[in-house]
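RECORD TYPE: inverse folding
INPUT: structure tokens
STRUCTURE:
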């Protein structure tokens, strides 16, 4: 369980984590068992922690070496809903992809994530 800011830090660290075991442990600590992820590039909704692991593996496979960075000052939260803007790219070009995540937090865990891409990868 954690505050919105703590969960957002964990969320983006998880999406950048390449070690399978470390990522799985962190997912179990930050996301609800039946978490949902809505991504504009996938028709299906990813439901559950295992599905989240699969999605992160796919994204990391498409963009090796990329990391997520929260855009400073972009975190906004009320009534368990969170909006945060981010950069995704290699360490020498963080702004390769930009977007926003909208999340629902329940019982101190991330319950759903809706991903919006502002600047897609070329």
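DESIGNED SEQUENCE:
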């Amino acid at each position: 369980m954690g505050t919105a800011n703590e969960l957002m830090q964990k969320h983006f660290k998880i999406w950048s984590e390449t070690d399978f075991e470390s990522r799985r442990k962190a997912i179990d600590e930050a996301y609800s068992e039946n978490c949902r992820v809505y991504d504009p590039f996938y028709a299906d909704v990813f439901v559950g922690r295992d599905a989240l692991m699969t999605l992160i593996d796919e994204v990391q496979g498409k963009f090796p070496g990329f990391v997520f960075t929260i855009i400073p000052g972009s975190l906004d939260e009320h009534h368990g809903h969170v909006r945060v803007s981010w950069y995704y790219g290699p360490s020498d070009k963080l702004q390769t992809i930009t977007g926003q995540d909208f999340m629902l937090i329940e019982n101190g865990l991330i319950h759903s994530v809706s991903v919006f891409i502002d600047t897609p990868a070329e």
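NOTES: The mean pLDDT is 93.
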